[in-house]
Structures are given as structure tokens and as C-alpha cells.
Amino acid sequence: MPIPIRIVLIETSHPGNIGAVARALKNMSLDELVLVNPKAFPHPEATARASGAEDLLSRARVTSDLSAALQGCGLVLATTSRERDGYFRVIDARTAARRAVEHAQVGPVAIMFGSERTGLTNDELRYAHALLAIPANPVYPSLNIAMAVQIVAYEVLCAQLEHDRQSPRRITTPAVPLANPEELDRMYGHLATVLEEIDFRDRTQSGTHLMKRIRRLLQRAEPDTNEVNILRGILTAVQHRRSQEPHG
To answer: Could you give the C-alpha distances from 223 to 121, 181, 206, in angstroms and in order?
Structure first.
């Protein structure tokens, strides 16, 4: 049975890599591939490199918008070559795979891979709850995207097999799914509106980083749907109270 984890490739340059990724996914019982702005797809080279995974390749969804690619997902992981990051929690591939499998029991999970040349941009990383790092030789840590997907997919399959072997009493499954990107975007928009209404300004020199920092803080907290609703309820209460205050 396929594992309900979505692999998202962003702006992949070489169609052969897309085909190789499809093959890697089918090897490891993953079958949901989403392509964001691929340079060339469909393409004969992608089909040739899929080598038996043409069915998975034919089902790949293509979109021009990352938020659409992540629609409905709870946990979102972003692959990185960094061992540490000042803004994001960085976890190794094995730990990330276990968490992905746990969260996949209650809702869709996405793992993002950036373009071959530049990886993921800061704008793309804003959707991530954590960064997934693959340990490698520090002298030469660069991995082909299909190799990186193969390693992550293998760890996911191992984590799923381990999950299946456990007795029901030992399985740790989140009670409520994490808030999906659409719910989080609405919350951040609501928060930005309230901050503007109460005249809470960014005090940094550039004055442009406040919402980015708040977003990173809350992404690290991994709020679930109920928690997002609580936060939005607080924001609504603030707005309601302000509307009752005398003006002038």
C-alpha cells in the first residue's frame, strides 16, 4: 500500500532527474509526485529514466504555485544541505522520516526538494516546519536530486515498516493534524492585520522582518488546526474589543 507522503520537486531543470525520482519513489512505495514549474515536462528523457515507473510519472501533478502543491498538507519538511540553521530546526533524514510517517497517519505530509542548482529559496522555506538534512562527506556533500530523493524515500519506507510492526499500543499518532498551509496563511494574514490595527511596528533597522520572524517562530511550534483556531479566536477578540473602544 502506498505511503501517503507527497514528494514536491520545485523548478527541476533536467527532465531525466524527474524520471529518476519517479523510479526511486516507486521502489520505496511512494506514489505521489508533484512538480512545481519544471523546466521541461513531460519529456522523453523523463520517461526513459523512469524505467518501469511510467505509471507514477504519468500521474505526477504539475503546478505553477508552491502553495497549490502543498494544499491540504500538515507537516511540511524541506530538504537542505545545511547541518544547522539559526531560524529552522534541522533534523536528520532518519528522524524526519519517522516524524513524516507518524503525521501521515492523520493527514497528508509533504517533503520539498529544490532546484538542482540553487536548492530551496527563503520564500519556499517559509512553508517548512523543519529542515531535513542528509548526512554526507563534509568535503563533498553535494547529492544529485534523484539520489537525495532515493535516500529520503528509503528512510520513509523503513520508518513505515517499523510503524507497521509496532503494536497499536505503542504507535504514536498525533491526535489532531497540523494546520495546513492554507490555514496558516490565513492566520498570518489575520495576525498582520491585527498588528497593523494596534500599530505594532517592526523595530528593526530595515523594518521588514517582523512577520518573517513571527512566521518562523510559529512554524517551529508546529501548531495544529485547533491551536490555529485558538490563536485566530484571540485575534478576533482583540479586534472586537477595539471596535467597542470610544474613538476620538
So the answer is: 23, 11, 29
